[in-house]
């Protein structure tokens, strides 16, 4: 019974007017071109973010100063239909190398037609993140996720 | 980046506590209801609940003569809400990028 996720996964869906190959490759090869740059963990401002196109590949950001910070690993690489990566970022907004603290993101691409693709995203095993640093710092006392939420709220309100 | 300060508060490292946490994620429960669904005694459930509560994962509220336990909305909800917003924004940005990309590189004019 403990293999069932203890925190309900997050899901998101978007339909894009693009062929399935284009949708998959935009998501992966051009990851850094669309990922919102404010969501990053490095000390330096984010220059770009990359997802290495293979199973076991790194998912990481590169700062404007050239420094690199890991986010996770590619678990499944099945172009153009499916991608699974880990998200190993704890409540301190730092990479946590412990695989026991890795949440997973599965992205599925399905062709609705030659020029339309539905992309479904699931972020699961969130309890593994909670079991890390976030538990101590984010949930028991201020800081962590709570202050990130405040930062996010500020960022969101500043947007047009 | 390793956890410093000796033993971390591995509240969910215990399988029974994970099971309790999972049951409470489905719906709030009293101690008795939890004990019925688990192969442990009421007092063992109470002890685990105390650890979960001390860890900030669970909160309780008196309802008549019973005490109802549920997940701490400030912890788990905050985590989910934050990530939910991250993904909503990221998918929107992705959608724009995917539609802006050239549909067929071979037909692209220089």
Protein described:
The complex is a heterodimer of chains A (160) and B (110). With 160 residues, chain A is of the alpha+beta class. Chain A has one domain (11-129): Alpha-D-Glucose-1,6-Bisphosphate, Chain A, domain 4. Chain A has 5 helices and 7 strands, in the order βααββββββααα. A 7-stranded antiparallel beta sheet of chain A has the order 1-7-6-5-4-3-2. In chain A, a hairpin with a 2-residue loop joins β6 (103-113) and β7. The longest helix of chain A is centred in the C-terminal third of the chain and has 14 residues, at 144-157. Chain A is globular and about 40 Å long. Mean pLDDT of chain A is 78; it is low at 1-5 and 132-160. Chain B has 2 domains: 12-72, Winged helix-like DNA-binding domain superfamily/Winged helix DNA-binding domain (Arc Repressor Mutant, subunit A, Orthogonal Bundle); 75-99. Chain B is elongated and about 65 Å long. Chain B has a 3-stranded antiparallel beta sheet. Chain B has helices at residues 15-26, 31-37, 42-54, 73-100, and strands at residues 29-30, 58-63, 66-71. Chain B contains 4 helices and 3 strands, in the order αβααββα. The relative contact order of chain B is 0.10. The model of chain B is unreliable at 1-10 and 106-110 (pLDDT under 50). Chain B is α+β, with helices and mostly antiparallel strands and 110 residues long. Chains A and B meet through β1, α1, β7, α3 and α4 of A and α1 and α4 of B.
